[in-house]
Design brief:
- This protein has about 400 residues and is an alpha/beta fold.
- The protein is built from 13 helices and 14 strands.
- The chain folds into three domains: about 70 residues, Arc Repressor Mutant, subunit A; about 140 residues, 2-Layer Sandwich (Nucleotidyltransferase, domain 5); about 150 residues, ATPase, nucleotide binding domain (Nucleotidyltransferase, domain 5).
- A hairpin with a 3-residue loop joins strand 3 and strand 4.
- The longest helix has 25 residues.
Length: about 400
């Protein structure tokens, strides 16, 4: 067991090194991983045989023996990210390079327990059919992203009464795995969005960040030293449940202020109904400006307080704010958060750098697909290596 785990760890160390340093040579792989040249070379050959690594043209004209550059082979693995959320289902097929190879999305007023599994399975089958038979064998599995305790909290979106019991009885992960025949792993949706933002950020990637995602509720994720912090059950970083000061002088959960649900309540007071079932990018945001402006300011204050409180516990150097809303609204949320941060006193630590997210609505399904491939091919966590087959 220990020998197999060590072999798997070495293999993943080599693959990670090649991924982050495209064009690297065998000799440099050996130097950076600390593996003996013969061991590193043997692992590279093994990865090449498995279709995960490809070699470029030999580099001549330099001192010493000609070097052959090594690259990650994007066609070496494929991942499916399936987000089932309060108001939509969003599914992506990507390759090892995170290139988008297919996409399915539908927005709704509430998720229907009676049909959601069949809908997801049909969409996934259609996406996989785009791959040739050899590529289909390289699908790592499905990453299922939902809010934590999704089935028990479905009443939050006021579905018909029969949906409450149906969702309590539905094991969505197991049902999706049975319907597709593909290994399916559950992830918290906020963690997925955070992971995608970390992976897609250009180097040098921030090592310690808090990611806040303004959606139906407030999703969140944290990375510490380049590692996603999921906690023992995968539910950690539920920062939307942090208590913050509301503009009305009362303490409220972040979910109840910085979310489109909170915006919906503001609109409802003015007799305006959110167009549920339509993508938020298509909502008439400009028509609601009288209600958008105070919601943005209140959200910024709540987000700033969450960032400062999180930074007091963890040494966060970056804070990222993203949303399902259009980019213009995201930019306003970031600006409002920046203003609110400037008014808060930070003791004994520098304020994290605040930036806008770059992925928007595609962050969660993308991260779910990436996490699936990461755990199978890159993670050096013992449980992940054993789940992938020990020595692979």
């Amino acid at each position: 067991m220990q020998h197999a785990s060590l072999r798997a760890a070495n293999r993943r160390a080599v693959l990670t090194t090649i991924t982050f340093s495209p064009g690297i040579s065998n000799a440099e792989v050996s130097r950076r991983t600390g593996l003996a040249p013969q061991t590193a070379s043997a692992i590279v050959t093994e990865l090449e045989d498995d279709g995960l690594v490809t070699r470029g043209d030999v580099l001549r004209g330099r001192r010493g023996q000609p070097a052959t550059p090594l690259y990650l082979d994007y066609g070496g693995a494929y991942g499916i990210g399936c987000e089932v959320s309060w108001r939509h289902i969003d599914i992506k097929l990507i390759n090892l390079g995170s290139e988008d190879l297919g996409h399915y999305r539908r927005d709704f007023a509430y998720p229907d327990a009676a049909g959601i599994v069949a809908e997801a399975a049909e969409a996934i089958a259609g996406l996989i059919a785009r791959l040739d038979p050899a590529q289909q064998q390289r699908v790592a599995g499905i990453g299922l992203a939902t809010p934590s305790n999704f089935g028990s909290l479905i009443g939050n979106v006021s579905p018909p009464a029969e949906q409450l019991q149906a969702w309590r009885e539905l094991d969505l992960r197991a049902a999706l795995e049975a319907a597709t025949g593909l290994a399916t792993t559950w992830f918290n949706d906020g963690n997925c969005a955070c992971f995608a933002e970390m992976v897609m950020s250009p180097p040098p990637r921030p090592a310690n960040l808090v990611h806040l995602f303004v959606s139906t509720y407030l999703g969140a994720g944290i990375t510490a030293e380049h590692t996603l912090w999921e906690g023992p059950t995968g539910n950690s970083a539920n920062l939307g449940s942090m208590l913050v000061n509301g503009h009305d002088g009362h303490r409220s959960f972040g979910h109840d202020i910085a979310s489109t649900s909170a915006l919906g309540r503001r609109l409802a007071q003015a007799g305006i109904t959110l167009p549920l079932g339509d993508h938020p990018a298509n909502w008439p945001w400009s028509d609601w400006e009288a209600h958008i402006a105070p919601w943005v300011e209140a959200s910024g204050s709540a987000l700033a307080e969450i960032i400062v409180n999180t930074g007091a516990v963890l040494e966060i150097d970056h804070a990222i704010v993203d949303s399902i809303a259009p980019q213009s609204i995201i930019d306003r949320l970031v600006a409002a958060t920046e203003r609110a941060l400037g008014e808060l006193v930070v003791i004994g630590a520098r304020r994290p750098r605040l930036v806008a997210g770059t992925l928007g609505a595609r962050a969660t399904p993308l991260g779910a697909a990436q996490l699936t491939m990461f755990r199978k091919h890159f993670s050096r966590d013992l449980s992940d290596m054993l789940a992938a087959g020990g020595g692979e």
